[in-house]
Amino acid sequence: MILESEIWLALVVLLPLAGAILTFMAPRYAPQIGTVSGVIVFGAVVALTLAVVESDATRLTVGGWGAPLGIDLVADGLSTLMLLMTAVVGLAITAYAVGYFGESSAHKRAYFWPLWLFLWASMNALFLSGDVFNLYVTLELLSLAAVALTALVGQPAAVQAAMRYMLVGLAGSLMYLMGVAFLYAEIGVLDIMALASVSEATPPVFVSAALITAGLMMKTALFPLHFWLPPAHANAAAPVSALLSALVVKGSFYILLRLWLTVFAPLGDTFAPYVLSALGIGAIIWGSIQALRQPSIKLLVAYSTVAQLGYLFLLIPLLMDDGADRQAVLSGIVYFMIAHAMAKSAAFLSAGNILHALGNDRITSIIGMSRKMPLTITAFALAGISLVALPPSAGFIAKWLLLNEAIDGGQWLLVVVIIAGGLLAAGYVMRVVGPAFRQVADDQLAVANPVVPASMAWSALGLAILAIVLGFTGVYLLDVLDIGVVILTGGEA
Amino acid sequence: MIDLDTGTFYMLVGTVLFGIGFYGLIAYPHLLRKILAMNIMGIGVFMIFIAAAYGSGEGDPDPVPHALVITGIVVAVCATGLALSLAVQVQALTGSPKLDADKE
Question: Within a 10 A sphere around the Cβ of A191, how many other Cβ atoms?
């Protein structure tokens, strides 16, 4: 029997939730239940994708209540791609975590699995939410799970980083909710499409847009509100770092993207998009320079995230410009999100392998390690190729799409920034890859026989290979993005 | 006196509370104060929702914002719980109820 496609909308939220509860109730079997849940959730997301590709965007009215009181789940091309990105990275992290949280860390393991599956459920619910209040709830659930996961390692630095993450995250969500309150007071509906159909460039809508955008910028760690990200991402356990950097920050960015395409479209010709773009430039330059200066690999990768997030904001003015090919700009941004998710999770997982095998992740410790840990160093190098955006990697296609639109739009400053950002990325990636491939005698290695569990080595490498291979399959992904995504025109239209 | 209608008045009160909370969150290094400040921010937002439910004061109040506020309170309680337990951990691990970067 083939299930109706709407069923999958509910299942991609319910399945990880069920898995989370089961792993919480049976901590002894958490890795087994977690692995099975991961595979099942991945399968459900693939089924949903196929259903959306076959039968167009779908909407599920939960419990039959309908807007304005009920909760609607909506899957269009953009949501589907985000779900798929989460599922692919999620499955690899699930495999990684089985090796990472071994018998020796039973306590951490007992908490990792339920929290990770809760996080997955909230991500999926976020991408499917059709109204601005439900987005708030999912955003908050996502933050709570992410903060708890950050604190999981229990060291003072990690707990402090988690505390700061919590405070910034809560302030961000409350600003978002304040924006929603103004929006509701002005317009009186919560459904995104209903809001979009009546929203106009009035002062209350502008205030609401400012609050919502500022709140989401905090959560996405856009420069100069990125200060909480490097300590949180660098001090967390390796699979958690990968989740935070590859996926969690994309959740809040997705909301930003979705709302500016619809509800805030009438504000497209104000100065706001240019502010976001300018901060994006700041992020790329500042994040890259900081990445060039970090003594340890995880901090370097975390600052690389600060820099890479800048690219997502760079072309927002063109995304809001009726004169530009907005669908193409959106394709570039979404492709960049996906490429970054693969490359960054691979980079953090291989950094985790290095930390696991060598006992620290100082750049000086990995001199000559390419011979001893070939899978891990290859994974990092491949992820680096995608971050630097060398052909034929996914990162290259993503930047090529962005560059094309920047040139078409005559935004020469952005062209220069995109190219300079690539050179800076090459600089910080080489700081790790260069020493790793240096030829040294065995007695000069930091650790003579580093050991990395197979599941950890291969899941990092798998994601890194995807970060390259995705470069060849871009067309299919972008076809999915064309399904039912609403891009409203601004101004008088 | 400026003649304010009730809805607008409570909307202003909500905005002021939000502002006070935000100031407290940034200005005070003690974690307990920060967590309390965040709750004040939240109450400011809820006040705005309630003012939106009141509207112009004519006819029945809109029930939707009430449902939102109740959901919001549940979320705020959960978040406060997690924040408090983290603050206790910070105190236990570092001996101080402040974050490192916020100490003099």
Answer: 19
Residue B43 has phi, psi (to 5 degrees) of -65, -35
Question: Which neighbouring-strand residues pair with A254?
Answer: none
Answer whether residue A352 shows pLDDT above 60. yes
Residue among A143, A159, A190 whose CB faces B90 most closely: A159
Domain residue ranges of chain A, discontinuous segments joined by +: 1-130, 131-265, 268-488
Are B45 and A178 inside 8 Å of each other by CB?
yes
Chain B partners within 8 Å of A166 (Cβ)? 79, 82-83, 86
d(CA A390, CA A410): 24
Interface ipTM: 0.95
Which of chain B's residues have a Cβ under 8 Å away from the Cβ of A160? 90, 93-94, 99-100
Q: What is the pLDDT of residue B4?
A: 77
Residue type (1 letter), A283: A
DSSP classification of residue A246: I
Give A134-146 pLDDT, tens digit per residue. Answer: 999 999 999 999 9
Band of pLDDT at residue A354, cut at 50, 70 and 90: very high
Looking at the structure, give the CATH architecture of the domain made up of residues B6-102: Orthogonal Bundle (1.10)
Residue partners of A103: CB distance under 8 A and separation at least 6:
none
**Closest of A229, A240, A222, A227 to residue A151, by C-alpha:** A240
**For residues A478 and A115, which has the higher predicted lDDT (pLDDT)?**
A115
Question: Minimal Cα–Cα distance from B57 to chain A, Å?
Answer: 13
Which residues are CB-neighbours of A6 under 8 A, at least 6 positions away? A58, A59, A60
HSE-up (13 A, CA, CB side) for residue A203: 0
